[in-house]
From TrEMBL:
Top-level taxon in the UniProt lineage: Bacteria
Thioesterase domain mapped to chain residues: 62-130
InterPro entries given in the database record: HotDog_dom_sf (IPR029069), Thioestr_dom (IPR006683)
GO molecular function: thiolester hydrolase activity
Lineage, uppermost ranks: Bacteria, Pseudomonadati, Pseudomonadota, Alphaproteobacteria, Sphingomonadales
Protein name: PaaI family thioesterase
Amino acid sequence: MSEAVETSYGQLSVMENGEFAGWRYWQGDPFETRSGPFYYRREEDGSYVSAFRAEPRHMNGGGFMHGGCLLTFADFALFAIATDELNGDHAVTLNLAGDFLGSVADGALVEARGEITRGGGKTIFVRGIITGDGKPALSFTGIIRRLTRR
């Protein structure tokens, strides 16, 4: 099903088949694994895109994606967007904020793209947008703090 690489903070795996064949995902975060699975890959332009397929378990009582699911995915995307900046270092989210722009229906392809607005040190600032089938669903900003290796 997947090829895996062990790191100090989880297991980076690559899907070998299905819709997300060739995409990377993390094993080792129980909440994220249960919430997703969420995937990411490098695009031809060097940026990163994160994605997952919306399922009934991601929906709220109104039949649209739960806001908590979108924010959980945004948190995942922060780290995917900052992959190169982090260079394998462990980090934590200091701040995550989002503005809901539209709904996401069951079955939609949910994607996140973004950019680092400031990096180069222990604190990394990221902004991005999440879409559902190409339509804006959430804009987000976040701050990541790189942790010192022990």
